[in-house]
Amino acid sequence: MSHEGIRFVAKGNEASESEAQQPLPRIAVTPEKVRVLITEGKGMEIDWVDGHRSAWGFAWLRDACPCATCVEQRKLEGCKAGQPKPKPTAVLPMYTAPAKPKSAHAVGRYAIQFNWQDGHSSGIYSWEYLRRSCQCPECTFAAEETTGTPN
Ligand SMILES: [Zn+2]
Ligand SMILES: [Zn+2]
């Protein structure tokens, strides 16, 4: 069983997170195609309605879990979303399997949720959160160089 073929078209939604950031244009946060490459163990790819394409590895997504517990944990550890946790040096190196979800499913029309193999599943990744976390060189460059939103 695999879900890598899930594809759905989301039309406008009313998700307006109470974030201090400027809202992104709707076409920038509306996915046209969502591919979750679970069998390949790669990650997720989204083609947005505005023509942009984003891709994230599962490890990044796991470390960017937007649930309250993980957000709090990252705050305590001083990690950014998607940044791997600092490894405790006193502990013998242990093999940790790369993060991978068992399954993924859409949450309404505004988000996707992963059931991670480690049992965690409370993170709801909104399209807006994902678009703002786009890992492509263009977006990461823009995020570093400016504080505004590219239009
Ligand atoms: Zn979490
Ligand atoms: Zn991008």
Could you walk me through the main structural features you see in this protein, from its secondary elements to its overall organization?
With 151 residues, this protein is of the alpha+beta class. It has a domain at 26-83 and 99-145: NE0471 N-terminal domain-like (2-Layer Sandwich), CATH 3.30.2020. The chain has helices spanning 58-63, 68-77, 127-132, 137-145, and strands at residues 31-36, 43-48, 53-57, 101-107, 111-116, 124-126. The strands form 2 sheets. A 3-stranded antiparallel sheet has the order 1-2-3. A 3-stranded antiparallel sheet has the order 4-5-6. The model is unreliable at 9-19 (pLDDT under 50). Bound molecules: zinc ion (ZN) (2 copies).
Give the key terms.
4 helices; binds zinc ion; 151 residues; alpha+beta; NE0471 N-terminal domain-like; three-stranded antiparallel beta sheet
Q: Give the low-confidence spans.
A: 9-19
Bound ligands:
zinc ion
What's the multimeric state?
single chain
Helical content class: 10-25%
Query: What is the number of helices?
Result: 4
The description of the largest β-sheet is: 3 strands, antiparallel
CATH-assigned fold name of the domain at 26-83 and 99-145: NE0471 N-terminal domain-like
Structural class: alpha+beta
What would you call the shape? globular
Neighbour order of strands in the largest sheet: 1-2-3
CATH architecture of the domain at 26-83 and 99-145: 2-Layer Sandwich
Portion of residues in beta strands equals: 15-25%
The CATH class label of the domain at 26-83 and 99-145 is Alpha Beta
**Terminal CA distance:** 40 Å
Q: Averaging pLDDT over every residue, what do you get?
A: 84
Q: Write down how many β-strands occur, each being a DSSP E stretch of 2 or more residues.
A: 6
